[in-house]
Amino acid sequence: MSSGLRPDPSVQRRRLALFGTRGVVGRCRDFTHEALDDWGWPRPAGPGADRGDGAGERSEDVLLLVSEIVTNACLHAGGPSELSLEQRGLRLRIEVADGSPELPRRRPTAGPAQPGGHGLMVLERLAGRWGAERRGTGKVVWAEVLRPGP
């Protein structure tokens, strides 16, 4: 017997199961880039190029958010177990699951010009919203961004 409920065609999802830390950031960026292409997001302009409309910058922001969240899972949680992307209308939600129940927290840094310790600042600047929640014995760190207009 059918419930009469149909999947919402404006919702698109992709999931990538992950194991370990070697090469995982690059795999996640490639996976995300392919999903954004398939979903019709503007392509990043590339180094030194100027599109003039800034639309590709939002795609680049998404790739940077994925890199930061996955890198943090590698550094602080033994590596991610899954990357999930969900586009619902104009909103894209990025989720990275890992096996550590410890929620993200700011760590002291040597200064804004020094490398390391800036992952949460990147999330705060680029994501419309972000957060973390415990799931099972681990957690999910998520970020949401709006798709650029036509």
From TrEMBL:
InterPro entries: Anti-sigma-factor_SerPK (IPR050267), HATPase_C_sf (IPR036890), HATPase_dom (IPR003594)
Highest taxon of the lineage: Bacteria
Any one Pfam family match given in the protein's UniProt record, by short name: HATPase_c_2
Region (Disordered): 37-57, 96-119
Record keywords: ATP-binding, Kinase, Nucleotide-binding, Serine/threonine-protein kinase, Transferase
Keyword ATP-binding among UniProt keywords: yes
A GO molecular-function annotation: ATP binding
Domain Histidine kinase/HSP90-like ATPase residue range list: 56-143
Matching SUPFAM superfamilies: ATPase domain of HSP90 chaperone/DNA topoisomerase II/histidine kinase
Bias (Low complexity) ranges: 38-48
Protein name: ATP-binding protein
Gene source species: Streptomyces sanyensis
